[in-house]
Amino acid sequence: MPKERNLRMTRQRQSILEELRKTDAHPSADEIFGRVRQQMPRISLGTVYRNLEILSAQGEIQTIEMAGSLKRFDAIATNHYHIRCVNCDRLVDAPLEVSNALENAVQAHTDFQILDHKVEFEGLCPECRRAKPGAYPDSV
Amino acid sequence: MPKERNLRMTRQRQSILEELRKTDAHPSADEIFGRVRQQMPRISLGTVYRNLEILSAQGEIQTIEMAGSLKRFDAIATNHYHIRCVNCDRLVDAPLEVSNALENAVQAHTDFQILDHKVEFEGLCPECRRAKPGAYPDSV
DNA sequence: TTACTTGCAAATCGTTTGCGATATA
DNA sequence: TATATCGCAAACGATTTGCAAGTAA
Questions:
Q1: Is residue B1 part of a domain?
Q2: pLDDT per residue as tens digits for the range A36-71
Q3: Are B22 and B42 in the same domain?
């Protein structure tokens, strides 16, 4: 058993959590920094990172690490899939249930002990699709 | 149409490509650097990065960007899923066919134009499983 | 001969960390 | 009061880039 820490609900931590719960836009640490800073101009980016990490370890929020992109944070802590716009990097939840069928199928054919899985869809969001019809990268 | 470049097959580029084709271990740029350096001690890491990017753009190789991990490179350029060991970061191909059923299912319920998807499994490789039975992170 | 490519070193950028000061429980 | 947390600034690590010299075609 790891030694327990006495966590404190500081004004900073509270504010970060509230900002995150206000949105479903999966903001980055820097975006959260920008929003919290409006209430609390002296907060530092390091504090934002530290708190996001603590909240994530507590299971209060979820850290989303997308391949080749910044870390994103989500007030919804349960696993779900995402769609990322390859043009503007917007991130939304994918309308698809998380299924353990994929894990089961892989587990049947590997010596790894499968613990988790993530699915990322890439595409063009409606806005970018409109802005540049037909023009999109053919490799990512 | 972008202006075409006349690519040259330099000794460095050749050697990087050969090293990558020798292995199925999905090495990082730094690991490839280490291997190529044995034949070519004066090659620089920047050259390795530049060539990997060029080869990837040409479709000769594939860049694998795993969430929260280094870039990896693969001589096999076609899409496939991966399993990553959460303990030692080893990366292997997942024994599961790539299916567009996932993309179709999402496409039916989103305004995004889905272009691609990736699936990452996380688990413990056989070696790490043996080394630390029962002991694994419960969050990643 | 042209201009793509190299080696080197410095720059970038997201993120982490050391520190002395502050504030929560 | 004890110590978790803060703000600040410096450190970090992977990757990228500017530049003058080298080399493939």
A1: no
A2: 999 999 999 999 999 999 999 999 999 999 887 899
A3: yes
The nearest CA of chain B is from the CA of A130 a distance in Å of 11
Residue among A114, A116, A126 whose CB faces B111 most closely? A126
Strand C neighbours among B 11-70, CB < 7 A: 12-13, 40, 42-47, 50-51, 54
CA A123 to chain centre: 17
The SS3 of residue A71 is: strand
Between CA A11 and CA A9 the distance in angstroms is: 7
Q: What is the CATH number of the domain that holds B43?
A: 1.10.10.10
Of A36, A56, A77, the one marking the end of a domain is: A77
Q: pLDDT band at B131, cuts 50/70/90? A: confident
In the predicted structure, residue B57 carries a pLDDT above the cut 60:
yes
Q: Residue B140: which of A102, A112, A116 has the nearest Cβ?
A: A116
- Return the structure tokens found at B42: 């004066």
Domain holding A73, by residue range, is 8-77
Other beta carbons within 10 angstroms of residue A19's beta carbon come to 21
Number of domains in chain A: 2
